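Example 343.
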Amino acid sequence: MPRTLKIAAAQMGPIHLTSKREDTIQRMLTLLTSASKLGAQLVLFPETALTTFFPRHLITSPEELESYFDSASTITTAPNTKPLFDEAQKLGIDISVGFAERDTDGQGYNTCVYYSAKEAKVIAKYRKVHLPGTKEPFENPDAVNQLEKRYFTPGNLGFQAFRAPDLVPGAAKKGAEVKAGTGDPILGMMICNDRRWAEGWRCYGLQGVEIVLCGYNTAGFAPDLWGTRKPMTPEEAEIDAVFHHKLVMQGNSYMNSCFSVSAAKAGMEDGKYDLIGGSCITTPEGHVLAEAKTKDDEIVFAEIDLEDCRQGKEKTFDFVRHRRIDQYGPITTQTGVVEPEYL
Ligand code: CDV
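Predicted structure in complex with 3-methyl-2-ureido-butyric acid:
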């Protein structure tokens, strides 16, 4: 039986250090309206969707730093974010939104939440596990920094898949006979750099994930970060960065037989920091179904059928029949590389 639903990535153009929160929220509301006109039931916003990607800056003022953080417990009720969630509920659209979270114990996390319009509340939260970059700025004064290890603690909530209600008709509920591919959609969230790590995808794959959501801020040209062995122009570097983005979204969607939605914050932020676009929706067979054409605010939309996940989950990637966990020891016992001895 088809399990169709309409999903969208809300790509956002740049948000600057000087941008006002109410203007950013207004842009997000406009994106929601556009998605609603297309019939979208689920909209993904980018990583740190409410602010500029501030971890590129060395921020020494505690007050300034705090201005980029929000609290997860008040994200739907605080006056400077509430209108977004209210509108999502009014339009009946589920949203996933990334933001810098300050927890009650003072820790900072790079977080996203999933808000269910049907439930009128946040039903899932994810904290970015793979924090890229460095704690200290690069020595090169012209380098693009990525100080996430300075401002954030690695995520501690794991890769917890969840079901979202009221997105597909006729979903099997508690008490019914358990049969894969018949319940409410199974979703997983990750944030930016996480998408490059197969481990997180497989954790979701092992929970039968059907749609992975991933918001991102990816620098187009950052040789100190990416490596400089092969010198590239900014244009060549950006083409490569978009290629790697799509490569991991397509490859991991295929290897876990799921759809994926990725939403960029794109364009030139804070005057000189270029972020890639390339927001896209990929299929369980690894194809790009829809993708952004600009580096501005843009809705990337597709109607999908979750039934398309079944083929991979039941044949090529039928985990229960084909996985050999006795052979995968190093994956959970080792972080760094251990090379074979020299000959
Ligand atoms: N925000 C990110 O996590 N950005 C990273 C870095 C390495 C640019 C990314 O993986 O895209």
